[in-house]
Design goal:
409 residues, 30 strands, mainly beta, globular, 2 helices, 2 domains
């Protein structure tokens, strides 16, 4: 068994490493190769193949299978069984994807991985690589032309912008946000070949930028607001305690956000805490299509609100994606009283519950998108918590986790 085949077989054995976020055409975990769509003699099947432990080359035996009803659409990445060969365009193994072929050995009754699986990359090169926009923003709070440009150089995706939104904004300063929107130089460089990691990296504030919307406006979902344990001392822009105040989804504090779920930092930086409604509308985003709105710091794309109900099937219905965070089941005795500050006021009120929504702890999942019909890991801005992700699942070079965002937001 060569090294690539060993990698294909070994990384998932017995470890249960594939979580609900990894929904590719086919998956391999816990000794089982799950092929959700396989065409055989013109009909569509779901098939499970079981790995024969310690076999070399790797052998699989036929497990359970079932035939779909007539009329079911054949999605992309569908496997096929023709002439004794199972061809699988994409198999997800942990955080990597392979193209694989299994030959049926009739005399032994097994499907054998004879040829070396081909490791597929996550290149985003060629997607939104020539985005240029110059839009006068005539909002009373701005009156500056928004400029943004994304280019690709073969290795990185590069942003140059002036940080001015390209859509109508609210009134700034306002009673709850006394800051004025100002032009500033924005530059960023993200890899064109993002790689998933097993470990999420927390970003935001001094930990590093989460990402940028295509218009060059920063994404920063957290805040610098805090309360002490008593709840008697709180600040929207200072570190006065251990309880981190959320900008959205609570009514106890007002951060002066506008209709785009955004507001302004003291240095004039306009930034988003949630779905940038004005930008989504400008892009024509609605319930009829997926809308790519941003790039995350790890190089993976961010979409607004809607995704396919079947993450592997671009012909499935679109639906609003929901985060997988729920209120904590046990409220800390040191938390400020819930009678004064209801659950949802603080970041610590939320906990990730795998499978309770559509997405993983970083508000992402693997699946097909219009720009990536073969599937890619990607994020969503959602109407539910955490709104924008607070972490990334791809590898990042210069980020550190666990740090609080700077005050004030």
């Amino acid at each position: 068994m060569n090294n690539r085949t060993k990698l294909f077989v070994a990384v998932a054995l017995g470890a249960g490493l594939l979580s609900p976020l990894a929904n590719a055409a086919s998956t391999f975990a816990n000794n089982t190769l799950d092929v959700p769509y396989l065409v055989y003699q013109g009909e569509l099947y779901q098939v499970n193949l079981h790995y024969v432990e310690n076999s070399s080359p790797a052998d699989f035996t036929l497990g359970t299978y079932s035939k779909y009803e007539e009329g079911v659409m054949t999605p992309s990445d569908t496997a096929s069984y023709i002439g004794g060969v199972v061809s699988i365009p994409k198999v997800r193994v942990n955080t990597e994807s392979f193209r694989a072929q299994l030959d049926f050995i009739e005399s032994e009754g097994v499907f054998r991985l004879v040829e070396t699986p081909v490791l597929l990359n996550n290149s985003t090169d060629g997607v939104v690589c020539n985005y240029t926009d110059s839009t006068p923003n005539n909002s009373a709070s701005v009156s500056i032309t928004s400029t943004s440009s994304w280019t690709c150089d073969g290795e990185n995706r590069n942003l140059a912008a002036n940080g001015i939104p390209d859509h109508e904004v609210g009134t700034f300063p306002n009673p709850d946000n006394p800051n004025t929107i100002a032009e500033h130089s924005v530059s960023a460089s993200f890899t064109l070949t993002p790689q998933e990691s097993l470990q999420a990296t927390t970003l935001g504030g001094p930990a590093g930028v989460i990402g940028f919307v295509l218009n060059g406006v920063k994404i920063d979902a957290g805040t610098g607001g805090t309360c002490d344990d008593s709840g008697n001392t709180c600040s929207l822009g200072g570190n006065v305690g251990n309880w981190n105040i959320e900008a959205l989804g609570q009514t106890s504090f007002n951060f002066g956000t506008d209709q785009n779920n955004a507001h302004v930092q003291p240095d004039g930086v306009y930034h988003y805490h949630g779905i940038p409604e004005g930008f989504v509308a400008k892009q024509g985003g609605d319930s009829s299509k997926m809308t790519l709105i941003a790039w995350a710091a790890d190089g993976f794309p961010i979409y607004a609100r809607y995704g396919y109900s079947d993450s592997n099937n671009a012909n499935s219905a679109l639906k609003p994606m929901t985060g997988s965070y729920q209120f904590v089941s046990e409220v800390s005795s040191s938390r400020p009283s819930v009678s004064i500050y209801p659950l949802g006021t603080f970041n610590q009120d939320w906990t990730y519950v795998a499978g309770s929504g559509d997405l993983d702890e970083c508000n992402g999942r693997f699946g097909v998108t219009p720009e990536f019909p073969e599937g890619i890991y990607h994020y969503y801005a959602t109407d539910s918590y955490p709104y924008f992700q607070r972490c990334v699942k791809g590898e990042v070079e210069s980020a550190s986790g666990g740090m609080l965002p700077p005050p004030p937001r």
